[in-house]
Amino acid sequence: MTPMGIFGILFLFVALYWGTDPFKYSAISEFPDFEAYKVDMPPWELVPTVRDNDNLLQKSEIKFLNQVQGPESIAFDPLGRGPYTGVADGRVVFWDGENWNDFAHTSSNRSELCNPKPSPASYLPNEHICGRPLGLRFDKKTGDLYIADAYFGLLKVGPEGGLATSLVTEAGRVPLRFTNDLDIDDEGNIYFTDSSSKYQRRNFMQLIFSCENGGRLIKYNPHTKETNVLMTNLQFPNGVSLSKDGSFLVVCEGCSGRLLKYWLKGKKAGTSEVFAILPGFPDNIRTNKDGEFWVAIHSRRSIGKPHGQAVKYSPDGKLLRVLEDSEGKVVKAVSESDERDGKLWLGSVLMPYIAVYDLD
Ligand SMILES: *[C@@H]1O[C@H](CO)[C@@H](O)[C@H](O)[C@H]1NC(C)=O
């Protein structure tokens, strides 16, 4: 991969984007103050080049085809039921073992605009009305489901489901623009990301081109209802996950394609450092029972067919495993990779299915 490679991808994206303008938005017309920010790209020699030559993700099972549209995040409740997932029309749905059921929603203003559509992307123009649940996590003690909704901020819904309650819509007097993912510690504190201070999810193309640096990592204390901004100046922060011992958080930074570590405990508490350089641009991250981190790679750094990739890192940031479907034959995209009982549950914000890969 050469610098020309990057230019190639950018050129391709720009050409595709300007050529089709799929959502009838144009970066300049809607955002007259559009500005591109410099991204501190890691040197090429630090970018991992390991590939999964066996294309192991092709062995995944495709489940629930056309029953779930754009299931980004996957969660199981404290009784082990599920999966639950957030879909493109703004609902959180629940698999009871036989059927998908409505569980919760984030918008109090749902209408026929949120009715079924042919593809996950066709919901984009109405997402700000219907809601778009991205990150999902259950509080294991209370059974409450916490939801990071791209448009409605941080919300919570009880085990009975229904309309979720809004908890946070701004932090440090700056409104949340693009809430993305969350995790919960043992005391019930919520850590969540706001991907941009300027662009909403339906304008993600502008965010990708601008790499605006208003992204934040935020803490919400449900007991005091206080909100604290932990990290600022992030360029498209996305997934977030606590370490197994709760001493640090790992945050995915989309524009630079790296993982950042934010210390919560110990001498370095309150400081951050680079945890790892990723082979591509990340979406969500989830910690497994051994304290390792699975990162969903949304796209690679070089040109190629869209394809699914998930990579695993040790608790100290070493790349342990790469799984992919480099031809995009079975798993075309991965937004989240959750390890559970020897299986990886692979969500995707773009696809109409959940893929399950058997690790054993
Ligand atoms: C509610 O939805 C309608 C479209 O169905 C929209 O025109 C209106 O602005 C929305 N109201 C609020 C408060 O979001």
TrEMBL record:
Q: Which organism is the protein's source?
A: Hibiscus sabdariffa
The main location is: other
Signal peptide range in chain numbering? 1-19
What is this protein's name? Strictosidine synthase conserved region domain-containing protein
Q: Which domain of life is it from?
A: Eukaryota
For this protein's source organism, the top of the classification is: Eukaryota, Viridiplantae, Streptophyta, Embryophyta, Tracheophyta
Stretches assigned to the Strictosidine synthase conserved region domain: 180-266
**Keyword Signal carried by entry:** yes
What keywords sit in the KW lines? Answer: Glycoprotein, Signal, Vacuole
Of which family is this protein a member? Belongs to the strictosidine synthase family.
| One Pfam family here | Str_synth
Q: Where in the cell is it found?
A: Vacuole
